[in-house]
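A further point concerns the way the authors explain their paired sequence and structure data. Nothing conveys this as quickly as seeing an actual entry. An entry of this sort, consisting of the sequence and the corresponding backbone structure tokens, reads as follows:
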Amino acid sequence: MSITEIIILMFFIGTLCIVCFFVGAKVGQKVVNGEEIKLPELNPVKVYREHQEQKAIDADQYRNNIILNNIENYNGTAIGQEDVP
């Protein structure tokens, strides 16, 4: 290993230690204050399903907004109307 690689590695490890200290301090403060500590969700199947459900909800809301805008803009002709997907 060259000296530059060693210096970069030392800087990276030092920064990682500082970040770990602050994360630990934050968790410690939550424990002292009696707050709940939430761990990240590590189930990729559940996260994927929730994302797909949210996409479906967003698509429905988008479709409904287009329909409502078409109703507001209706003047007896097709002018100002958007296609509903």
Q: What stands out?
A: The chain is about 70% helix and 0% strand. The two ends are 59 Å apart (CA to CA).
